[in-house]
Amino acid sequence: MKLVIDLASQTMRLHDADGTVLRRYRVSTALNGPGECKDSGCTPRGRHRIRARIGGDLPIRSVFVGRRPTGEIWSDALSAAQPARDWILSRILWLSGLEPGCNRLGEVDSMQRYIYIHGTPDSEPMGEPRSHGCIRMRNRDVVELFELVDTSTEVDIR
């Protein structure tokens, strides 16, 4: 399996070993555009691998802070009470860069930047850059994807 994230079209494709596209998803990447530097708020490019899968046993729309579930389930009321919160919901696929000097080690390390594929409130638009660097997905889509990939899945962000 391999994931390909296209920053220009704000899409993600899941390919099997033969290159056949199994799934297509709309995503939302960084508002600040592509970039690898720490604290840039950009989505890093290049080859990555899923380093960790978090939240597989939790209900859809579960809320995470620091990769840990808070016990909250996202709702419109919870969102209204905390309008500035950057919601990480449902599942987390934590990425690790594979290219030293590009997205691995030093000031460009995707894993140390906490770059994830994760769920976001369904009220957030897909298909347009809006994140703080991560790859946002619809909750139902990230739950589906979570079941199809593992920690050896390569992720190419271009």
TrEMBL record:
SUPFAM superfamilies: L,D-transpeptidase catalytic domain-like. One of its GO terms (biological process) is peptidoglycan-protein cross-linking. Keywords: Cell shape, Cell wall biogenesis/degradation, Glycosyltransferase, Hydrolase, Peptidoglycan synthesis, Transferase. Residues 1-158 form the L,D-TPase catalytic domain. Pathway: Cell wall biogenesis; peptidoglycan biosynthesis. The active site is at H118, C134. One of its GO terms (cellular component) is extracellular region. The keyword Hydrolase applies. InterPro entries: LD-transpeptidase, LD_TPept_cat_dom, Transpep_catalytic_dom. It holds the Pfam family YkuD. The keyword Oxidoreductase does not apply. One of its GO terms (molecular function) is peptidoglycan L,D-transpeptidase activity. Belongs to the YkuD family. This is L,D-transpeptidase. It comes from Denitromonas halophila.
